[in-house]
User: Fold this.
Amino acid sequence: MTPPPTTSVPTARAANEPGSDEPTPVVGAGTDQIVAHPDEFSLPEAAAAPASGAKPSATAAADAASGGAARDGGRGQFDRLLDPPRRAWRVLTSMRTALILLFLLAVAAIPGSLFPQRTINPLKVQEYYAAHPTWAPILNRLGGFHVFGAPWFAAIYLLLFISLIGCLWSRVRWHLRALVGRPPAAPSRPGRLAGGSSWASTLAPDEAVVAAGKVLRSRRFRVAVAPPGATRAGGDPDHSVAAEKGYLRETGNLIFHIALVVVLLGVGLGSWFGYQGTVLVIQGNGYSNTLISYDQFSAGTLVDTAKLRPFSLDLDDFKATYEANGQPKDFVATVAYAEDLDAPTKHAEIRVNHPLSIGGSKIYLLGHGYAPHFVLRDKSGKTVWESYVPCTPRDGMFTSTCTVKIPDTGLPPVGPLRSPQQLAFTGFFTPTTIVDPVQGPVSVYPAAVAPGLFLTGWLGNLHVNEGIPQNIYSLDTQDLKQFGTDGPSGKALPAQRLALNDPKNRTMTGLPGGMSLEVDGLREFATFETKSDPYKNLVLYAAIAIIVGLVTSLRVRRRRVWVRARPAAGTGSTVEIGGLSRSDAEGFAAELTALTARVRAATEPPGPPPVATPSPPAQSPPAQSPPAQSPPAQSPAATATTEDATEASGQAEPSAEPDDQNNPSSTRREP
Amino acid sequence: MAVNEGLAHLSDHLVDGAMAVYAVAMLGYAAEFAFNRIGRTADAAAAAPRAESAAKTALREPALVGAAAGQASAAAGNVSAAAPAVTSAAAGKAAGGSGSAGDAGEAQPARALLIGRIAVVLTVLGWGLHVGSLVTRGLAAHRVPWGNMYEFSSMICLIAISAFLLLLTRYPVRWLGVFLVFPALVYLGFARTVLYVPAGPLVPALNSYWLKIHVVAAILSSGIFLVSAVTTVLFLVKDRWEHRLAEVAAGRAPVSAAMRNRGGIVMKLPASASLDTLTYRLIAFGFPIWTFAVIAGAIWAEAAWGRYWGWDPKETWSFITWVCYAAYLHARATAGWRGYKAAAVSLVAFSALFVDYYLVNLVISGLHSYAGV
Ligand code: HEM
Assistant:
């Protein structure tokens, strides 16, 4: 394809007057709508072409310059005031701007995938800070760690959507008008359009167009036949048919774009009215949907956290199954839940990909791990403290780190500051333990076949209950002292290796104050996430509309066909046919050929047709037979016009003459 | 269930076999091109007047297309993405060889024709082996054969080759052969060497029927986009050529050696306008499928992770790809952006798709990291 002309005005002119032997404003208004590119509003200059009526701002400016404000009832001043915003609006709602903004959006999203994002993985952001101490703060200031919430990112998509809404506003109005209106009137010489042709008919012009209208109607075109006695601009009688088909294309396109806006709306509303919380639940325990039960909670700005739906859930059982190589196969959490304070208890299974729905919320299984059971006993064997303590999984084989904090040990405070003697244990848990000569105990399988714990004890001040929140999964050993213990690994060692399944080898003794610690049990825990996004379904429906609209818009072709008849020298008439399709020149060429054959058959005399095919009875074209069977355009007329028509089509294709579509938007703008 | 090792090995052998057969087929397509050129013996003296006629033909092509369309393929119509290729090729034939401009009036040498046909037979054979490889892999692992990058890549190639063969059953698009089989082969070779993982089961997060839907849509659209990228490149080549010819025809530039040497191949390509339309149709066909893939992915993510969109790198790049292809469709509809600029957008979009498939998994990785690669 030769490069499209950069200035669309002259070509558009040419295209709009295929029969430029006579100036035909009707043609200009008629042909453009289909060839018109949606770009029209980006070309205010073109719209201002004197022939088609100046845009209001230009008029206003001219009026004001000639002191015509009075003539205009003073509106010139007002219009002039509005001029710059209007122009800005027109630029903003142009297709070109949309294109640029789309690109910007794509480019702006890239850093979001390159830099660690706080919303996805805050730990990675910390690592990045450690690795790039100079760049990280700068990036942070630029929003590099929260790209999709950064003001500049928002600016791009908001502008895009404002542009889209502005664009839709005009397009919906035009389309509604097109849906109720008539197809645009025929150009003066439709036969000169690409693929157009003409022939002599024995029918009078008005009969010929009626016949042609019938054919087109039977092909499910919307048809407007010029009424008898209609005249053209020059006063000549107007015998023409205008037909159009494929309105669904624009409908689909509008649905698609509107649905885009709805998706954005749904996402925005969802983030204002939604909340999410994660909670770790050890088998046998449960939680309720209140702010304080969650380990982590975040909510949109418009959520009333005091009024969350009060459901509750207990984890009755948790089962994970694995492949032989340790790859996870399935996770199942069996839960009992009540949908409301006094609702009956129900039972359900939650697995990966299969969340539980309670009201508008969904509960997902996020992860799982092990919680060994620790029992601290004093000298006499009396239990001082016991608990299941969840350990944080570190790898696919569930080697997990454990931190046990025991503030109330019964040991007396020491020193002048009377600081408490608290206990802590750190270590790691291995569900299927083997002892590697180099690495020590490691886990070789994620299921708890031979659970083991490698534990170290600490004594001192844990600084809990001092008002400073601490991470329960890590230990600050600043005011702690490690102590030696006796146990399965030997006497007075800093660490002991305990085997949970072996009652003889799972106790540490010789703790301060003669205490002992036994690890006598194991349960699994599951982490759940409660999610509430009341607008999720809205987004889903809009997404469906996006697909439906898109497919419609890309599959349906919109095309126009015009027929015009003129009285011939003797009797009868000369009939011309031509048409345009914006989206699919080749496919349309075939369709037009088939249509031409039918219209021809309907308008030519029943005598010997030039084409050697059985032509159907003149007034009743067989609407049901497919176009492929209709006689192809082998007539000399069709071939002869091809050459000229190409000239027209070559230019008609990229032409974006906006006159007709643009003017409504500019002249009908109420002040 | 355990992996069936025998079948898994068979699958590997089959894909190797498919690659070997594709490679021979590709040589065949290339040879067809070459023989065509030798048959023509482009001599410098004749080049200039020919170029002129070619330039004219190029400009006239749409008309020929239009005229021939009625005869050749009224039925082809709008439905198929291949119509432009057909109609232009048909136009070439109908106009007595003037469609393939340079070798005006010269029929295709019989040798070349034979080689071309053999290449097609080989492609079908390779396709059969390729299908066999994926089927046996699926059977070996007791699941659908699209669970990791190696399998995705293999599937994408299969889709691209299938698309080509499908076009071939209805339209004379053998010229596309070498340009399509070559990238498919490179892709497949890369998959087999770098991305290869032994057959195995899926991780639980991938084990969902949304996986099947989402991944099938993603693979399907990617295969189509791959073809569209090929036609875009061909468009750029041909477009440049036509401009040169126009220059020569206008007497503003001499016939260059490059034109004489490579002219045969470039002349064989359909008119740039047809390539442009073909690209548009492919993308217009692939885009809704990609859109669907992204949406299905969001639904799957909602089921698996509790949020439908989280800007994970994979999601981010799928979005970027989507936006770029949307931009392509917009560019096509915007005056002044058709042709060359739209082609550039198409290539940018395909690069984004490439990043999405490969760089995201291999370099940046997020939640979507499926069991290694
Ligand atoms: C949110 C960003 C947008 C996206 C993702 C988007 C996407 C698309 C897509 C995929 C198409 C192709 C459908 C078709 O060809 O029928 C399309 C067409 C179109 N878009 Fe957009 N669009 C966006 C914004 C806009 C804006 C802001 C405007 C207004 C200036 C606009 C105006 C149009 C028009 C007029 C068409 C029809 C083109 C044609 O029929 O060939 N779009 N859009």
Summary: The longest helix of chain B spans residues 209-249.
